[in-house]
Amino acid sequence: MHVQNRLVDAPAVCLLDGWTLVNNQTYVATTAHFINKDAELETYLLGFLPKDERQKTHADLKMEEIGKRDLIHKVSAILPDNWRNFPCFDNTMNLIVEDSLKSLSE
After folding, report:
1. What local confidence, expressed as pLDDT, does residue 17 receive?
2. Nearest to 83 by CA among 30, 20, 3
3. Which pLDDT score is estimated for 87?
4. pTM for the complete prediction?
5. Are 14 and 35 in contact (CB under 8 A)?
6. Positions of the chain with pLDDT lower than 50, given as ranges
C-alpha cells in the first residue's frame, strides 16, 4: 500500500526530526511513526535534506512536510533531536543508565 494511504489510515502520527554529524553538517529528516490497526509499529521516511543555516527553520521544514502529506490533523507529537529546551528522551535515558552503571562499578 502507498505510504500516503498508510498515513491517512493512521489514527495519529508522531514525527521525528534531524541530527548533526561529527563534521557539523546538519540534516533534517522527517520520519513518521504510528501504530496500525494490527497493533504493529510502522515507520516511514517522509523527507531528508541537508540543512543550510540560511534556510528555513526546522519548524518551517516540518510544517511544509506536514502540509504536503495533509497530516495537520494527524500529528500527535513532533519529537526533536535534543533541542536545547526539549532534550531527546532516548539520549537522556541513555545518560541516566550510563551514570548508574558507572556508579555501580565504582
Report:
1. 67
2. 20
3. 61
4. 0.57
5. no
6. none
State the cell numbers at 26. 546538519
Cell numbers found for residue 27: 540534516
Q: What is the pLDDT of residue 2?
A: 86
Give the type of residue at 86: F
Cell numbers that stand for 22 in this block: 561529527
50 close to 27: Cβ distance less than 8 angstroms: yes
Question: For residue 100, which phi and psi values (nearest 5 degrees)?
Answer: -65, -45
Task: Report the distance separating Cα 6 and Cα 88, nearest Å.
Answer: 27
| pLDDT value, residue 79 | 63
Query: How would DSSP label each residue in 46-103?
Result: EEEEE--TTS--HHHHHHHHHHHTT-TTTEEEEE-SSBTTB--HHHHHHHHHHHHHHH
**CA dihedral for 60, 61, 67, 72, sign (positive or negative):** negative
pLDDT for the residue 8: 78
Contact 4, 42 (CB under 8 A): no
